[in-house]
Design a protein that fits this description.
This protein is of the alpha/beta class. The protein folds into 3 domains: about 110 residues, no CATH class; about 140 residues, Rossmann fold (3-Layer(aba) Sandwich); about 45 residues, no CATH class. Helix content is about 35%, strand content about 20%. The chain has 11 helices and 15 strands. The chain has a 6-stranded mixed beta sheet. Helix 4 packs across helix 8 and helix 5 crosses helix 6. The radius of gyration is 25 Å and the shape is elongated.
Length: about 325
């Protein structure tokens, strides 16, 4: 049975929406199934970096595993082909490079799921109104980056988020105010177009005003590749080249502070069936010997309550 085409297009539309908003996510597609399985060939789902799922990829056995692996794919930036089922279903016929994940599902079905990361288009916010700022905006737009040009007095922390790349090109007209607004939002990158000496003066002033040092330490100054004395167009090239290089290396990601604020609880393993579950109240927590365990369903919890020692020691019955 093939997946419903309408549902698949709904997922694609949601993916386009997330891309426009600059959110990173993974697209998971069922490319093969062995029945009985609620996941159908062609079924698609989106998994966000925070673990939210849109669409349908399979039932209670497959879904938490796909979410967990999709989050890993997002962090690594590399696609992954997953085989979900018991190892006996695949034997030695699995090609290298495919990740086989055993799942103890009563339906005895199996799925092959391709998970690919969709990294957001960079969003560059340039603060300033100099010719260099306009040139940088136009050049970044030519690369397909989302770009915003904001005049210094109009700029505030509300204009950016944790994924924004911020270049402050006010060039002496309110540098301090713009930097203070930018660092408080913990964007992925903050750079100040200024000489090293001017940068030290700006950061020293803000430190005296009580701006936390951990915020100021994230400001790059000067920015751009060192080309010596150049024109404003060449300065724009030098700045954009550095940003492209940083993005290619994976350095332009949400700051650690922003990631910490958005952190989700790490998944755990149901000790009875081996399924991946989220440690939350809806997953039937049960405390034994000072440790709290979580379960995929009432049956697994009941089996654990009856004889915890069997599962804690790892001798799970077949």
């Amino acid at each position: 049975m093939a997946a419903d085409a309408t549902d698949s297009w709904d997922v694609i539309e949601r993916a386009a929406e997330l891309a426009r908003r600059g959110e990173e996510f993974a697209l998971a597609t069922v490319v093969w199934r062995q029945g009985p399985s609620s996941g159908q060939q062609g079924s698609r789902a989106i998994v966000t970096a925070s673990g939210q799922l849109y669409g349908w990829i399979g039932g209670a056995c497959a879904e938490p595993v796909v979410i967990r692996e999709a989050q890993r794919v997002i962090r690594a930036g590399q696609p992954q082909l997953l085989l979900l089922g018991t190892t006996e279903q695949f034997g030695a016929a699995v090609p290298p490079g495919i990740n086989v994940i055993p799942i103890a599902c009563q339906s005895e079905g199996a799925l092959e799921v391709y998970v690919e990361p969709v990294l957001p288009t960079p969003r560059l916010v340039i603060v300033g109104r100099s010719p260099m700022a306009h040139t940088l905006r136009d050049m970044a737009a030519a690369l397909g980056w989302r770009t915003d040009l904001v005049d210094g007095p109009d700029f505030s922390a509300a204009d950016i988020d944790s994924r924004s790349i911020v270049v402050i090109a006010t060039q002496g007209h309110g540098d301090e105010e713009a930097v203070e607004q930018a660092v408080g939002a913990y964007p992925a990158y903050v750079g100040l177009v200024a000489s090293r000496r001017r940068g030290e003066s700006v950061l020293g002033y803000l430190a005296d005003r009580g701006v936390p040092q951990n915020q100021l330490d994230r400001v790059r100054v000067p920015i751009g590749m060192d080309l010596g004395h150049t024109t404003h167009r060449e300065i724009s090239v030098a700045i954009l080249a550095e940003l492209v290089q940083l993005r290619a290396s994976g350095a332009l990601v949400a700051s650690a502070a922003a990631q910490s604020a958005a952190a989700q609880p790490e998944p755990v393993i149901d000790p009875v069936c081996g399924m991946t579950v989220t440690p939350q109240g809806s997953n039937r927590p049960f405390e034994h010997a000072g440790v709290t365990y979580y379960f995929c369903g009432a049956g697994c919890r009941a089996a654990f309550e009856k004889d915890p020692a069997t599962f804690v020691t790892g001798t799970v019955p077949c």
